[in-house]
Amino acid sequence: MSGLLVAGNFFVDRLNAQGQSTGIVGPINTTKLAVKAEADEKVRASKKKESYGQALSVVKIAKPVQVEWMFDDQPAELIAMALLGDTQVLNEGSGTLTDEALTLPDNQRWAQLPKTNFAKLGFAVKKDTTTLVLGTDYEVNYALGLVRSIKGGAVEAGGAITVSGQHNAISGTLIKGGINAQVRARIFGEGTNLETGKPITLDIFDASLAPTSAVDFAASEFVSATLSGKAQLVAGKDYPFEYAELDA
User: Fold this and answer.
1) Distances, alpha carbon 238 to alpha carbons 67, 68, 190, 232, 242, in Å
2) Is residue 1 part of a domain?
3) Shared-domain flag, residues 109 and 123
4) Residue 155 region, left (φ>0) first, then alpha (ψ -120 to 50), else beta?
5) Single residue among 168, 194, 214 that ends a domain in this structure
6) Structural domain count, the chain
7) Block means of pLDDT (10 residues each) for the chain, length 248 residues?
8) Is residue 46 in a domain?
C-alpha cells in the first residue's frame, strides 16, 4: 500500500465551441487539480408495516465528473480563461499628433487623448499660440494619454488646448474579457508519485469550466485563478478522464 503525492507538469489545451484544439499551453504551475466522481442515489422505500422506511432497493446513477483547477501561472492565455475572455494580437504602429485639439475640465480632472504610450521628448501643449509649461501649467500621464491642468497654472480654469507629440508603437496580447459563458479545455499532464517514484499520467479530455473567484489585479500576493466545472465525454471514449500509474 502506498500514498499519492504528485509532482507534475500539467498542460491545457483550450478547445473551441466544436471541441477542437486551439493550441497547448504549459507546463503550468498547477496548485490544485481536483477530480470528483459523484453519483445520484435512487431509493425504493418500504411502505410495509414491518419495514416502513427501510430501503427495498438502492441504485446509484453516475453524475458528471466535477473538475476544479487552480493555477498561479498567469500568461495572457490563462488570464483570458479566468476572465471568460479571448485573446488577440495587439499591434499598433507609432505616429504623431500635431496640434490635436483637447478641452481640459475646469476642475483639474484628466482629459483623454485619442492615443496612448507617448514619448516624453517632444510632447508639447499650447493654449492658443502660447506653449504651456509642464509641471507648472499641466500634468501628463504618457502611458495612458491623459492631460490635466494644474491649480494655479495658466489653464487652471480649463478650456481649449492643442497637444503635439509622438506616440510609440504598441505590441503584445489583448484580452477581451467577459465575452464567453464558459471555457472548454483539455487538462492533462505527467508526473511522479513522490512516495513510490512511479510515473503517472492524467488526462481530462474535455471540461466545461467557469471561474469561481475574481482575478484581483490589486492583490498584494501572487494572483491565482480557479476554474471549476464538469468533464464531458468525447468521441471514442466512454469515460470522461483517465489516470494511469506506470511501472517505469
Assistant:
1) 17, 21, 22, 10, 11
2) no
3) yes
4) alpha
5) 168
6) 2
7) 89 94 94 94 95 95 95 92 94 96 96 97 95 97 97 95 97 94 95 93 97 91 94 94 91
8) no
